[in-house]
Amino acid sequence: MSPNPEAVLSVRDLSVSFRTDARTVHAVDHVSYDLAAGEVLAVVGESGCGKSVTSMAVMGLLPPTAHITGSIRLGTRELAGGDDKAYGKIRGKDIAMIFQEPMTSLNPVLTIGRQIGEVLRRHQGLSKKEARARAVELLDLVGIPAPAQRVDEYPHQLSGGMRQRVMIAIAVACDPAVLIADEPTTALDVTVQAGILEVLQSLRERLGTAIVLITHDLGVVADIADRVLVMYAGRPVEQAPVDELFAAPRHPYTRGLLSAVLRPGASAAADGGGKRRLPEIPGLVPSLDSQPDACTFAPRCARADERCTTARPGFKSDTDDAGDGAPHLAACWHPNTLQEAAQ
Amino acid sequence: MTTSDIALPKARAGLFAGHPMAAYVLTRVRQSVITLFLVSIVVFAGIRALPGDPALALAGEERSPAALAAIRAEYGLDDNIVIQYGRFIGHALTGDLGTSSRTGLPVSDAIGQALPVTLELAALSLLLAVVLGIGAGIVAAVRRGRPAEWIANGLALLGLSVPTFWLGMVLVLAFAIAVPVFAASGYVPFGTDPLDNLRRMVLPAIVLGSGLAAVVMRQTRAAMLDSLSADYVRTARAKGLTRREVIGGHALRNSLVTVVTVLGLQLGHLISGAVVTEQIFVLPGFGKLTIDAVFTRDYATLQGVVLCTSAAYILINLLVDVAYSVIDPRIRLGGAK
Amino acid sequence: MTTALSLTAVRSRAAGSAKLRALRKNRLAMTGGVIAGVFVLAALLAPLVAPYDPAQPDFGNVLAAPDWSHWLGTDDLGRDQLSRVVFGARASMQVGVLAVILAFVVGVPLGLLAGYYGKVADSVVSRVTDTMLAFPFLVLAVGLAAVLGPSLTNATIAIGISQIPAVIRITRAETLRLKHVDYVAAAVANGGGDGTVLFRHILPNATSALVVQATVGIPAAIIGEALLSFLGLGVQPPEPSLGVMLSSAQAFLAPAPWMAVFPGLAVVAATLAFNLLGDGLRDVLDPRGATR
Fold first, then answer.
1. What are the ABC transporter domain coordinates in residue numbering (chain A) (predicted)?
2. Per the domain annotation, does C76 fall within a domain?
3. Any idea what the CATH number is for the domain that residue C229 is in?
4. The complex's ipTM?
5. In sequence order, what DSSP letters do the residues of C91-124 get, joined into one string?
6. pLDDT tens digits for range B42-84
7. Domain total of chain C
C-alpha cells in the first residue's frame, strides 16, 4: 500500500518496538490508516493494544528507546524518522494532540494565557500582546466563560473539564490540519464529557480539523466518529465506516467488543454512569514479546482453526463488499460475511 | 521535598480572606519572631550559665575588683534576671550589643566592620553555587545515562565529601603557591581595588561555594528528572516548543521551586563554612570575629555575633519562604485543588 | 495482636534479605562499604597497625618527604604521619559514632513523642527543633566549645547536639506515616498499649529511615570533628586528630605539602565511603528520600 496523496494524514505499516535489557516489546505491528480532511477516525481497543503508542509515534513523542519503522505522512511531508528539531516545526502547528490527563497536562506555575500564547508565538511569531488577545479568543472558542479573566489564571484555579478545554485551545491555536485526542474524556465526570465532545465536534465543523480520536468508549465512537479502526495486541484487526462497523462487524474480536453494548438489556444505564466500556472477552491478551506468524486473537477466538495459528491474516476488504465509498477491512481468516453479520 | 510538604496556613476569615499570600507571610513572620525570641533567650542564658561569676566572664582577662565592679554596674548584674534580659533585649534592639572586653570598642562597630567582608564572601559563593549547581544539575538530568551525567554526579559527590578547609588548603597549594595566580590571604575592600579584591576572594568563594554547589546540583538534577517526565512537559513538546523552551521555560521553572527551598535550608551551612573559610584565608569577617572572640573569651562580642548570625539566618529563611510562594502560584493564590 | 506482631516481623525479615541482595548488587555502595570497613578496622586496631608511636617526636627527621621508612612523610616535629593518620582516624570514628548515638538517644524519643501524641507535644518539640536549627552548626559548636572548653568530648557533644534536630524530624515524619499504616492501626485497635505500639510496631519499621540518617550523620560528624579540631575547638595537640594535623600543616604548606595532603585525603576517603554507602542504602531502604 502506498500513501494516499489525498489524505491529510497517511500512516503506512507503522511498527513500534521498545528494546529493554531483557526483551523487545512490539507495541505496534504494521498499522496503516488514512485520515481525510475534516474526518473523525476513532481508534478503539483495550488498554495496551497500542492505540496510544501509535499516536505518540505519529506525534514523535515516544522516548528514544522506541524503534519506529514505516511511514507517517502529514500532507506531503514524511514525519517518520524525524528528530525533535524537525518535529518542532510541525507539532502544535500542523498536527496537535490533547491528552488523557487534563489535571497534570498543564504547567502549574504558568498562567493559562502564557501556555496558550506560547504556541502562537512559536509558530506564528505573534507578539506577547497579540498572543494574549488571541488566547482570549481561543478560550472563548472552546467555550470557557469570562475568557478575559480566565486568561490570567493558573491551572489549579480551573476544574478538570475547563483544563481540558484549555488543552484543546492550545491544540487548535494554530489551526492544525490534524488533531489527535487521546482519551480526552476518560478522566472527566460524565456530565463534563459531553461538553468536551461538543467542542471537538464544533471545531471539526468550523475549522475543518481532522481528528484522530483514541478511546475505549464505544458510546463516544458512535457519537462523533466517521470511521473506526479497531486494534488488538498491537495490530489493526478491523476498519470500517462507523455505521457499517456497528451494523455488521466482521472480525470476531469486534463482535465481542460490540456484543455487550448491542445486547438487549445491557443499556448504558445498566452499566452505571452511562459509560459503555469494552466488555470482557474470555482469555488473555497475548504478550507483545514476539510477533507470531499467526492471528494474535486466535487463542481467544471460537472460530480459530489450524490456519489461524500458523499464518498471519492480511488486512483486506471482503470481495462481496458493497464497494460504496470507504472500504471495510478486516484481518481475519474467517470473517463474518455481510449476510451473517447483518443478522 | 514536594509542594505538599509545606504547611499552608488556613485562609483566615476577615482581613486576609482575599489575600492568602498576605496571611501566609504574616504567619511566617510571626513564627520567625517567636524563634528569634527563643534564640535571644538561649544566647542570653548561655552567657549567664557559664560557671562562676558572669562578671568574670564578661570582663575577660581584666580581673581587677574595680573592673569587675564597673562591669557589674554596666550590665546591672545585681538586678533580677528578667529585668536583665529585658535590658539586654532593649539594648540589642537599639543596636547596642555591649563593649568588647578585648578591644574596648562597641561590639556593634566590630560587627559593622566584619559584615561587608562576610557578605561579599557569601554573595560570591552563593552566585558560584547557583550558577554551577543549577547548570550541572540541568546537564545531569537532560543527559541522563551519558558521560556528562556521571561527571556531574561524581563532582557533586566529591563536593559533598571534601571538607571545605581541606579544599582551601589544596587550592592554596595549587593556585597561590605552585602557580601563584590568586592570593592566599588578606582582604582589600572592593571599593579600594576591585581587581585585587577579586584576586583575594576567588579562592575563598570557590572553597565556600563548592559544597553548596554540590547540594544544589543534586537537588536540581532530582527535581529536573521529576519535571522532565511530567505530563506538562509532554504537552510543551506536543506544542512544538524548542528543546530550550521545554527545558528552560517548563521543566526548570517548576524545578526551581524545590531548589530555592534547599538553598534556604543550606544557608546555615554557608554561615558555618564562612567561619572556617575566613580562618584559612585570614579574612577579617564574621567568622574570624567569632573564633577570635572564643579564644580571647570575649563573651560580649560572642553574644553579639551569635545573636546577629542567628537573626540573619532566621531572616534568610523567612525570605526564602516568601520567595517560594512568589514562584509557586499554588501557594501565592491558595486553594490548590 | 500476636498475628499483627508476627506479620510485621515476617514482612520486615523477607523484605530485609531482598534489600540486602539489592545493596550487594550496587557496586558503588559496596566500594563505599569496603572503604568504610577498612577505616573502622584501622580505627579499632590503631595501636597494632601504626608503625610508630604517633606522639614520638624525632627532631633529626622533621618535615621529611614520604619514603620507605615513613610512607606518608613526617611532620614539623618529625612524627610519623602514617601513624598519626591512623590514630586520627580512630578519633574521627569515635566522634562519628558517639555523636550519632547521642543524637539518636535524644532525638528518637522526642521524634516519637511529637509524631505519636501530636498536639501540645508536637508544637513544643517542633518549636525547640526550630530554635536549634536557627543556630548554624558551627556557631552552636563554637558556642558550646566556648562554654564547656575545647576537648574531644565536648566536640562530640557539640556535633551530637547539632544532629539532634534532623533525627527528631525524621523520626517524627516516620511516626506520623506509620501511625496510619494498617498493621499499626490494627495493633492500636486491638488494644496495644502506647509502649507496645511505639517500640514493637513503629520503631522497628522506622529503622530504614534511621539507618539512612546514621550513614549521613557519621560522615557529617567526621567532617565536623576535623573542622572543630582544625579551628582548635576540638582535640587538643599533641593528641592526634586529622583536623589538628591539617591545622599544623597550614604553616608548612609550601615546604611540606604532604602534611596537608594525606590527612585531608583520609577525611575525604572516609566521608566519601560513608556517603556512597549511604546513597546505596537510601536507594534500597528509603526510596522516598532518594531526592533529598
1. 11-258
2. no
3. 1.10.3720.10
4. 0.82
5. HHHHHHHHHHHHHHHHHHHHHHHHHHH-HHHHHH
6. 888 876 666 556 666 666 666 677 777 777 777 666 777 788 8
7. 1
